Amino acid sequence: MTHHSIEVTDLGFSYPDGTKALDGVTFEITHGESVAIVGANGAGKSTLLMHLNGILTPSRGSVRIGDVPVSKDTLPDIRKAVGMVFQDPDDQLFMPTVREDVAFGPMNLGLPAQDIDARVDDALARVDATRLMDRPPYRLSGGEKRAVSIATVLAMCPNVLVMDEPSSNLDPCARRRLIELLRSFGHTKIIATHDLDMALDLCERTIVMSEGTIAADGTTADVFADDSLLVRCRLERPLVMQGCPVCRGQGVRPRV
Amino acid sequence: MAGIESGLYQLGRIDQLAAQDTPIHRVDPRAKVVTTLVFLVCVVSFGKYEILQLLPFAFFPVVLASEGDLPFGYLGRRLLVAAPFAVVIGMFNPLLDRTVIVHIGGIAIAAGWISFISIILRFLLTTAAALVLIATTGMNGVCMAIERLGAPDVFAVQLLFLYRYIFVLADEALTMSRARSLRSFGRRGMGLKVYGQILGHLLLRTYARAERIYNAMLCRGFDGHVRIMRRLHFSGADLAFMLGWSAAFVVFRIYNIPLLLGLAVTRSVS
């Protein structure tokens, strides 16, 4: 897999209870791109993410990572290439200590012991969490948990980072640090989020989802300037693009 | 819901105690687990009227707790919390088993009382030993040790996960119970019916979380086998710890040390 493009073609998915979550989603993301996926609650963002590394199997259409289609046989390779950071760090950090949790992925890859140590040290250093190495995950703060869950994925050296709401439940300072951290990664990034300001900061491209379909796909600046689209999809402009509440200045508020 | 909160705090306290660094904490977890097992087997294998011979076994938890810098008050309170179980198990013995077997100072003592005391003593010894083991080794160390000692992988991993998620589960239960009490005024809404629904809801949440955790594991290459990374080093000192204590337990089991001591003292006096 030399080119880590992601190709989603006519993807459709219904949950067993009949809820249609995705209906004909098609897009392509090229190597090194940062893409935000935004949309209202229940628009299908998380369901889409779970198709990117085969947690869910499509009812219709296909997903390809590089030249490899996502299917049962290719799952080990796909999961090596696509690292997924879950929304709730408590779901992601299940081992007794931070060190063991970060080592979980590399150990499953079957690496020799000294390589595992090197990867754990490196991944924790990159998220600035080396001092948390021997702590149990339930003793960490929200921001620390988030940093460590990103490290657990980095330790597998994925080419693509998929993140579900990485900035939720963080205090402003931890959020800012997370954004700087994500900016420093050269990976292809796909970020599902309600934090539109973060999307504006990090992603040059934004895909807007609405009721299981793609409502818009374009540069982040263009998408967030289209007020009628935003209102239709239950969104609004990022705060930095709204008028200053103090000076009532030039910024244009979306009309609802 | 102070119960859940203080329960969590107590668990956290054990973690803190286990994180200390004393000679006892440094002993290899496997040595401690095996020694504790030998201790348990010896203590429970006595006949049901045995009291005297059980006494020397108290050395083990007492010595480990003091060397391991564990606060006796804390251990004592933990023992008291569990004590009602042992009392309930033994409390009918004095009523059912009324054969007089000894007279002390003219008072006839029924066999039932002896076996009751024996049960309480055994409970204290075994529970104290288990507490001391966990407070000097940590739950994770104990799990790892039993895995290395050949217990099925599934068993050790279940224990690890149980311990990891008991905090998350208790937090969720706490939040739900607070939400309930905030909207129940007086006794309304505090009934069993609501309680049942909360439990059911908690079960469903747990189920959903289990699925998410499983997905997170799959994403990181989980193939049905959890590999625990930690190198254990079993040194000569660990071996000495294990063999020394085990030998002592066997001696305590075979010879009635308090009786021999008593005989020796009376003989030298006469």
How helical, in percent, are the residues of chain A? 25-40%
Strand order in the largest sheet of chain A: 6-7-8-3-9-10
Question: How does CATH name the architecture of chain A?
Answer: 3-Layer(aba) Sandwich
Beta-strand percentage range of chain B: under 5%
Basic shape of chain B: globular
How much beta of chain A, percentage-wise? 15-25%
List the helices and strands and how they pair.
The complex is a heterodimer of chains A (256) and B (270).
Chain A: E1 6-14, E2 20-29, E3 34-39, H1 45-52, E4 60-65, E5 68-69, H2 75-81, E6 82-85, H3 89-92, H4 98-108, H5 113-126, H6 142-154, E7 160-164, H7 172-183, E8 188-192, H8 196-202, E9 205-210, E10 213-219, H9 220-225, H10 227-232
Parallel strand pairs in A: 3-8, 3-9, 6-7, 7-8
Antiparallel strand pairs in A: 1-2, 1-4, 4-5, 9-10
Helix pairs in contact in A: 4-5, 4-6, 5-6
Chain B: H1 2-18, H2 23-26, H3 29-44, H4 59-67, H5 72-90, H6 93-96, E1 100-104, E2 107-110, H7 111-137, H8 139-148, H9 153-183, H10 192-219, H11 236-254, H12 257-269
Antiparallel strand pairs in B: 1-2
Tell me about this structure.
The complex is a heterodimer of chains A (256) and B (270). Chain A is built from ten helices and ten strands. With 256 residues, chain A is α/β, with parallel strands linked by helices. Chain A has one domain: 3-Layer(aba) Sandwich (Rossmann fold), CATH 3.40.50.300. In chain A, strands 6-7-8-3-9-10 form a six-stranded mixed sheet, sandwiched between helices. A four-stranded antiparallel sheet of chain A has the order 2-1-4-5, with helices on one face. In chain A, strand 4 and strand 5 form a beta hairpin. In chain A, helix 4 runs parallel beside helix 6. Chain A starts with 5 loop residues before the first strand and ends in a 24-residue tail after the last helix. The mean pLDDT of chain A is 90. By secondary structure, chain B is mainly alpha-helical. Chain B folds into two domains: 147 residues, no CATH class; 77 residues, no CATH class. Chain B is built from twelve helices and two strands, in the order ααααααββαααααα. Chain B has a two-stranded antiparallel sheet with strand order 1-2. In chain B, helix 8 runs antiparallel to helix 9. The longest helix of chain B has 31 residues. Chain B starts with a helix and ends with a helix. The model of chain B has no long low-confidence stretch (mean pLDDT 87). The chains are: A alpha/beta (256), B mainly alpha (270). The interface between A and B is medium-sized, with 34 and 28 residues.
